[in-house]
Write a structure and sequence with these properties.
CATH topology: Glutaredoxin
Radius of gyration: 12 Å
Strand content: 25-35%
Number of helices: 4
Distance between the termini: 20 Å
Strand order of the largest sheet: 1-3-2-4-5
Largest sheet: 5 strands, mixed
Order of helices and strands: EHEHEHEEH
Structural class: alpha/beta
CATH class: Alpha Beta
Helix content: 25-40%
Length: about 100
């Protein structure tokens, strides 16, 4: 499944999804954010039970403020439009999968 870039205009509509929605708050200048891109791409290509989206904090500062993003990469997991999990920092694929699976039930 393709990773979608979100803006303030479409954010609420996208997270109100029957699937889990993982939102990656990131920035182009962030090294750890860049290191997470292949991990998220792999998860997106292997799983159809989750939608993965990205929010560029430099371009969408209102969304970053709304979710009190103080450090990136910051991952927010939504289920039925509700925030059900948060995770911070670059991590291996196995940790991201564990984070997703813990909230998929």
């Amino acid at each position: 499944m393709e990773i979608r870039n979100l803006t303030n205009a479409d954010f609420d509509e996208v997270i109100k999804n029957e699937k889990l929605v993982l939102v990656d708050f990131w920035a182009a200048w962030c090294g750890p954010c860049k290191s997470m891109a292949p991990v998220l791409d792999k998860i997106a290509s292997e799983r159809d039970d989750i939608s993965i989206c990205k929010v560029n904090v430099d371009e969408e500062s209102d969304l970053a403020a709304r979710f009190k993003v103080r450090s990136i990469p910051y991952f927010a997991l939504f289920k039925d439009g509700e925030l059900v999990g948060q995770n911070l920092g670059a991590q291996p694929e196995s940790s991201m999968i564990k984070f997703i699976d813990e909230h998929s039930k």
